[in-house]
């Protein structure tokens, strides 16, 4: 099942790469750091909301499936995130084209960065669901790695960045072979991020089907679950959130 978590890491890494470049290519009326903060707030709100509304109901019915449901919803959110990003990028490129700035690699599209709010919120929701679900999966069902669940999720994000390099190279090869032009340019204005995001939509959809198949046939009964009377470790969760926010703030480019 762990193999299906890799696409989550790939989509998550978009938030620190293409999403920031995309935001930097708008009018700049909303600072990038604000978009990152909104993503973090959404992540925490969704995580808390799921725990308050759904988690206890699911656990009462079948406790061992709670994390699987959370991860599945998060993976569905990854599809929405990439689809929204593709739509917004199409609008940004259209604004550049109408202004005659499409050939300027340093030009900023005359549209508000507020158009990117939905994709950053979707990314935060994905992290709040799939990210915490994956951490809980390792923590609940693998006793020896219980304290390292958040570390596994960070590892997936780092591995996702590496896989993104190969995935983008494949997209570049396909676009050159199929359309005789590259979708990967030297700048965000010279690239076709909208089409690249569509490729991620397809990848996320395929991964959702794979996850649904694997999780439905997964033998939860053979997993050593977390004892019901074992105390939680809130400090680790809070510490992980602090480290995640600090890392994201360091990754924001300075204009």
UniProtKB/TrEMBL annotation:
<dbReference type="Pfam" id="PF00854">
    <property type="entry name" value="PTR2"/>
</dbReference>
<dbReference type="InterPro" id="IPR036259">
    <property type="entry name" value="MFS_trans_sf"/>
</dbReference>
<keyword id="KW-0472">Membrane</keyword>
<protein>
    <submittedName>
        <fullName>Uncharacterized protein</fullName>
    </submittedName>
</protein>
<dbReference type="GO" id="GO:0022857">
    <property type="term" value="F:transmembrane transporter activity"/>
</dbReference>
<comment type="similarity">
    <text>Belongs to the major facilitator superfamily. Proton-dependent oligopeptide transporter (POT/PTR) (TC 2.A.17) family.</text>
</comment>
<dbReference type="GO" id="GO:0016020">
    <property type="term" value="C:membrane"/>
</dbReference>
<feature type="transmembrane region" description="Helical">
    <location>
        <begin position="109"/>
        <end position="135"/>
    </location>
</feature>
<dbReference type="InterPro" id="IPR000109">
    <property type="entry name" value="POT_fam"/>
</dbReference>
<keyword id="KW-0812">Transmembrane</keyword>
<keyword id="KW-1133">Transmembrane helix</keyword>
<feature type="transmembrane region" description="Helical">
    <location>
        <begin position="195"/>
        <end position="214"/>
    </location>
</feature>
<feature type="transmembrane region" description="Helical">
    <location>
        <begin position="155"/>
        <end position="174"/>
    </location>
</feature>
